[in-house]
């Protein structure tokens, strides 16, 4: 395992991340443009901190996905039912966008091995499973990056922490029964997807959960997981759709709780010297300001913790 060297911030960003694939999802796409601008505006990052990913190869996309499914994606020959399940009209540009995200997360994972923590402005495409896309996710970026680290002997025990309001059903599908990748999803029990896959550990939350209860449940389970799993790499899906302002979340949690959530995850990784890659995940508040501020808070917490 490489020795971690702190004080370097690396963030994957590509202009294709902001491609407005569907007008009804303008805000979630717009945030990928505004997050880097906000980080630069606040003096938290500059151009040297951002790197541009390449198109992930067919072979890379098949690390954790069914080659037959990936081939149909590349050829734009997916069954119409699968296209409807994904939710976006299928196009080469859309597939390329997912390939950039995959490579960005893989590169960010490698940077995390060097510097302790690294980010992907987009990503968190956790609804894509082994042989299916779903919920606006075609390919699973963190699952693929986990497969890459295992293939190249860069990690041996990986923990995927998914704190998006929606269960990481695709990630659970890919790593069901896996011995080296442990999946943990803490999500709204009655929220999408309505048919859940089985993660190694699932915690379904009631919609009336309080901020205090949420943090107590999370802290308890994180401590137990890190002690039991003893991961040598962590992937963190940091969706901000747990916020009370989120139109899809329904958890009614405060920005302070969202920030404290990030502090718990990143603080443990920093304390235990476990590299962590962070993907942004979901965020659907009507005001784009609420989404961007919450995501940028995740960066700020890491910058403070790691003295970046």
TrEMBL record:
Database matches in SUPFAM superfamilies: Arginase/deacetylase
Lineage top rank: taxon: Bacteria
GO molecular function (one): hydrolase activity
Biological processes annotated in GO: epigenetic regulation of gene expression
One of the Pfam families matching this protein, by short name: Hist_deacetyl
Keyword tags: Hydrolase
Record carries keyword Hydrolase: yes
Signal peptide: none
InterPro entries on file: HDAC_classIV, HDACs, His_deacetylse_dom, His_deacetylse_dom_sf, Ureohydrolase_dom_sf
Residues covered by the Histone deacetylase domain: 30-295
Family indicated by similarity: Belongs to the histone deacetylase family.
Name of the protein in question: Histone deacetylase
């Amino acid at each position: 395992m490489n020795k971690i060297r702190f004080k370097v911030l690396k963030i994957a960003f590509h202009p294709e991340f902001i491609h407005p694939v569907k007008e009804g999802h303008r805000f979630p796409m717009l945030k990928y443009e505004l997050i880097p601008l906000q980080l630069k505006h606040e003096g938290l990052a500059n151009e040297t901190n951002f790197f541009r990913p390449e198109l992930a190869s067919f072979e890379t996309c098949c690390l954790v996905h069914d080659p037959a499914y990936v081939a149909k994606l590349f050829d734009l020959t997916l069954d119409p039912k699968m296209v409807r399940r994904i939710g976006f009209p299928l196009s080469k540009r859309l597939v390329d966008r997912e390939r950039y995200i995959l490579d960005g997360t893989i590169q960010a994972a490698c940077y995390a091995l060097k510097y302790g923590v690294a980010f992907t402005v987009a990503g968190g495409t956790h609804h894509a499973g082994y042989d299916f896309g779903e919920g606006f996710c075609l390919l699973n970026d963190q699952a693929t990056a986990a497969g890459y680290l295992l293939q190249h002997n860069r990690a041996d025990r990986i923990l995927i922490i998914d704190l998006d309001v929606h269960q990481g059903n695709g990630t659970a599908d890919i790593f069901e029964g896996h011995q080296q990748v442990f999946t943990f999803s803490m999500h709204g029990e009655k929220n999408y997807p309505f048919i859940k896959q089985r993660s190694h550990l699932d915690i379904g939350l009631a919609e009336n959960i309080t901020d205090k209860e949420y943090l107590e449940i999370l802290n308890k389970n994180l401590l137990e997981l890190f002690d039991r799993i003893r991961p040598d790499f962590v992937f963190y899906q940091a969706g901000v759709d747990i916020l009370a302002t989120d139109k899809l979340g329904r958890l009614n949690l405060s920005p302070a709780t969202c920030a404290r959530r990030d502090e718990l995850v990143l603080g443990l990784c920093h304390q235990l010297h476990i590299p962590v890659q962070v993907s942004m995940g979901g965020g659907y508040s009507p005001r784009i300001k609420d989404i961007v501020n919450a995501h940028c808070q995740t960066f700020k917490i890491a910058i403070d913790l790691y003295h970046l």
